[in-house]
Amino acid sequence: MHSPAEREGQFQVSVTTDAGSHRVALSGELDIATADQLTESLEGVRPASGDRMVIDLSAVSFMDSTGLRVLITANRDATAAGYSLVIVTGESPAKRVLELTRMDEHMQVVSSL
């Protein structure tokens, strides 16, 4: 079993911004040990009304309910601020979590852009 510090080392967040489009790409395990890191990264991105934010989960190897909570909050924030949020899952385990919880019916979830 990995210590939290080792597991956090495997998790990475990459943020890119280009003319009204913001992309947050994740890799590794999105769980209780890493959710705060994603939350902090998302708080650092400030989309304006009409912008688009993409959260790319296609390289996520695991996601638990803590990661799901961060995505639900991000979706709520996007709606309140007037920008669109797109969650890209690829065939990652995150896709299955979103389907099982039926959150894919409440968020814009796509397999690829």
Structure characteristics:
113 residues; alpha/beta; Transcription Regulator spoIIAA; 5-stranded mixed beta sheet; 4 helices; 5 strands; 33% strand; disordered N terminus
Count of individual domains:
1
Radius of gyration: 13 Å
Main β-sheet, spatial strand arrangement: 1-2-3-4-5
The low-confidence runs, each spanning 5 or more residues with pLDDT under 50, are 1-9
H/E topology pattern: HEEHEHEHE
Q: So, CATH architecture?
A: 2-Layer Sandwich
Residue fraction in strands: 25-35%
Shape: globular
Written overview of the protein:
The protein has four helices and five strands; from the N terminus they run αββαβαβαβ. The chain is α/β, with parallel strands linked by helices and 113 residues long. Strand 1 and strand 2 form a beta hairpin.
Compact summary:
It contains 4 helices and 5 strands; from the N terminus they run αββαβαβαβ. With 113 residues, it is of the alpha/beta class.
What's the arrangement of secondary structure elements?
Elements lengths: L3 H7 L1 E7 L2 E10 L4 H10 L7 E12 L1 H17 L2 E5 L4 H8 L7 E3 L3
Parallel strand pairs: 2-3, 3-4, 4-5
Antiparallel strand pairs: 1-2
Helix pairs in contact: 2-3
